Structure formats: structure tokens, C-alpha cells
């Protein structure tokens, strides 16, 4: 009897608790004004190869109307590196691009041992990744305003896609750090670039000129080229600053909105303070050239 009495004594407490929890859950589900929480999605796939993946960083309060997307492409001479490179820039990107979602992509790398994944594998993977990303915009609740960014080989791939395949993703602008822009003129820079490009592009600029040309962003600059901001150190001994100077000449020739910033005394990679300032310069440029 004592057990039964205790049950009936506590019954109102149980009922009140259940009603309270139920009402809270219902309120959360039907509140149309509640902002979406921030969300991170790792190793999302866009193909069968393990390298064909990307990470997604979605901000709190995102909407289809007001949350643009910045896609970051890593460097590594097309033979190394990963999407994790973005993590070192993420805090600075979030500071300068506060309303943006970000995606960092991997792509298949050239393998010197097996000779797999020669050009244009990397170019094609960027296309596949962007197509998959576009198919997710509704689910992620972000807009279709897309900016491409990347450093070194990633800057090359961002420029190549934005200039050659701009309609795929309707790319609105490009941010590039110390990018290769003309693989034919880069070929003779030093022994490493010569031997590397000869393998990755299956020949030299003389024996395989079509591939060198079709893989070079400068080949696709015209009056319709999208706004571009790019940065290069004056003592870069991996990708010479002449690569960015060539790009600037072409952009001037076709009166393309651009900004080229040289970084005195720095090489292939900048110090943290410089990155912070340049990323803010990039954000300002993108805002001024929608």
C-alpha cells in the first residue's frame, strides 16, 4: 500500500514534467524565427576516390538569401596537401567574411610512382566538387553566390575554374595567393618546376603545348573575366612573382576588375599578420566588386 500511495502522490509531478518537456519540444519545432545553429560537416564525398571529399563550415543564422559561399582549394604543387590547410586561415576568413559559409575541398593528387592523376584530373575534380556543392545549397540553406579562393596550386585551380568554367557555380570572384598562371613560362623557372610539370602534364611546352595552354588561367582571360584579387611575395622562389605579373598584364589588357598586391620581402607563404591584412583586403575587394 505504501508503494501505491507514493505512486499516486508523485503522479502529478510526472505529468507536469512530461507536459513541460513536450511543450518545449513543440515550441522548438514550430518556431519559424529560430536561427539555424552553426554546423560543420566533414569528409563529404563527391566521387569514388578517397581524395574526392570536402569539409563544410556553415554559420549560425544562415539563409538562402544572405549567406554567400567561399570555396577554398589547397596548395601543394598538385602532388601534396589537403583540405586541412584551410583550418589555419579559418579564423581570419570568419573575421573578414562574417556572413559566409565555407567549403574546403580535396582533389586527386598526381602520383610520381604510378603516374596516376596527371592533368587535367585536378581541374576535373574541382568541377565535380562544385557540382556536388551546388546540389547541397538548399539542404545547407545558403545562397548560390560563390567565391573561389586558394593558395599556390590551389590558387591556380581557383583561377583556372573561375576563368575557364565560370558558369559552373556562377563564380562571382577569385582570391589567389602566389598562383601559377602560365604553366608554359613557369616550366623553365628551375629544375623542380621543369621536372614536376614534365611529369604532371606528360611532356614539355614544346611536346604537349595544347595541355599547357588549356591548363593555364591566362589563356582564358577576356572582357568577361570575373573580378580577381591576388597576392605574391617579391622573393618567392617556388612560384616566381612574374607569374602574377603576367596575369596582371592580361587583366589590364581586357580591362578586368582586379587588384594585384605585392608583398615585399616575403616568399611562398606569408607571416600571420600579413595573411590577416590580405584577407581583409580580399573581403573589401569582393564587397566592392559584387
From TrEMBL:
Protein name (database record): Prolyl oligopeptidase family protein
Organism in which the protein naturally occurs: Algoriphagus hitonicola
Residues annotated as domain BD-FAE-like: 55-251
Database matches in SUPFAM superfamilies: alpha/beta-Hydrolases
PROSITE patterns on file: PROKAR_LIPOPROTEIN (PS51257)
GO molecular function, one term: hydrolase activity
Domain of life of the organism encoding this protein: Bacteria
Signal peptide, first to last residue: none
InterPro entries (alphabetical): AB_hydrolase_fold, BD-FAE-like_dom, GDXG_lipolytic_enzyme
Keywords noted in UniProt: Hydrolase
